[in-house]
Amino acid sequence: xxxxxxxxxxxxxxxxxxxxxxxxxxxxxxxxxxxxxxxxxxxxxxxxxxxxxxxxxxxxxxxxxxxxxxxxxxxxxxxxxxxxxxxxxxxxxxxxxxxxxxxxxxxxxxxxxxxxxxxxxxxxxxxxxxxxxxxxxxxxxxxxxxxxxxxxxxxxxxxxxxxxxxxxxxxxxxxxxxxxxxxxxxxxxxxxxxxxxxxxxxxxxxxxxxxxxxxxxxxxxxxxxxxxxxxxxxxxxxxxxxxxxxxxxxxxxxxxxxxxxxxxxxxxxxxxxxxxxxxxxxxxxxxxxxxxxxxxxxxxxxxxxxxxxxxxxxxxxxxxxxxxxxxxxxxxxxxxxxxxxxxxxxxxxxxxxxxxxxxxxxxxxxxxxxxxxxxxxxxxxxxxxxxxxxxxxxxxxxxxxxxxxxxxxxxxxxxxxxxxxxxxxxxxxxxxxxxxxxxxxxxxxxxxxxxxxxxxxxxxxxxxxxxxxxxxxxxxxxxxxxxxxxxxxxxxxxxxxxxxxxxxxxxxxxxxxxxxxxxxxxxxxxxxxxxxxxxxxxxxxxx
Length: 543
Ligand code: G1P
Ligand code: ZN
What we know:
The protein is an alpha/beta fold. The strands form 6 sheets. It has a 7-stranded mixed β-sheet with strand order 2-6-5-3-4-9-8, sandwiched between helices. Strands 20-21-24-25-26-19-27 form a 7-stranded antiparallel β-sheet.
């Protein structure tokens, strides 16, 4: 066995963000860049020698090369066995499912999620721990610390592995299994949902359109919806994973999933539409001419969970990220279960799920999931919706409108200012931070500030504290304005402004969202002087 030890020097920008290390492909292709980070992972993980790890990615440009490098480095670092997805491809929720099913030590997932791919796009590396979920902060910090002092990495000199054939082989002394990444995941889905009644729904006069956006979910969606559930061929669009996602931006929202939006908001639109992102953990749900906000989606799933076999015994609790609307809070209250508010990022749900304090979790950023894995799960959410539609016989729109009638409507929107100057963005935050103590009691039109703070989270399971998780300005009527800086962008800074207002009166549930939020948008401008600091008149993306 020929293990080479290669000298290297640290890169100073390998701090994992909201979801792993995410950089442009160009950055990752610098000599030693990927290798340093992978070696830092192996160095930081105590006891990984001889263990099984899972490896796969969303199929974006540089995925295959990175998989070969990681396999050879794993072999050189004494890893016992690597389970790699066929073609090097595995969706993020499937990786989580496979880590758990095989009781693996952890997994390395190559993805920059919803960021564009291709030679000019982004690439990313995430490490997931034994529970199948994203590494918690103490692990990512240990990896980061290691990247700062690394001086060499180990790699096996050997031929590339054929990733396309399902096989069991050896690479040096390490076992490699190229596995079908779809089957274990599809079986897990069958164990949670009533496939018979969804099949019946799909056979009736019910039309749906699933957009995989040329990203990782294509093969999963074809297997689930067309093969197992009997939807007509072609139900899944853009189903072939491409290295550059067909030039698209694989983010399932009203802006980037435009093909689907055109179909779902056109004449004769199907009854149900859904899209998922680059690595398959996000979802967007649409009805005929109707958009379901992710925050409402979480609330509707929670309210109807008893209709779904996997959740029929009730929920232990629910959790949402802080910027996600409080729609689910009202459902939790009615159900008499706890509702947790966590910082942005799925890793914060891990402890709550492990401790069985929460069963369903969600984020406003098109992420929904449950304790079935430890990642958010796009196709799981689609199946959950289909199961509820089959069980209730209602349309998507009726289901949501009825929900609003019962619980009131949380008007909600996120405004992103992308690629703004980092320094100016920081200045905006510093200024806001300095104003917080004086905002309470201030009145803007009909709105009076109830509280203003920088969100801090005390994890109720392990007692860890995460500070500075976003600036919240809450008003006495329950409305909220939140400011955060993105932890996943790769260019400049992305300012996220989250807006929420609550309307209990059903006769006022037909206002267009941006119109309903107009007063709050103006207050946010006034308080934070967004235009001046970002030098943008309008947000780049509104979701
Ligand atoms: C964004 C979303 C966040 C999500 C993360 C990974 O992070 O806002 O909810 O968990 O992507 O998909 P951000 O860029 O805001 O740090
Ligand atoms: Zn994703």
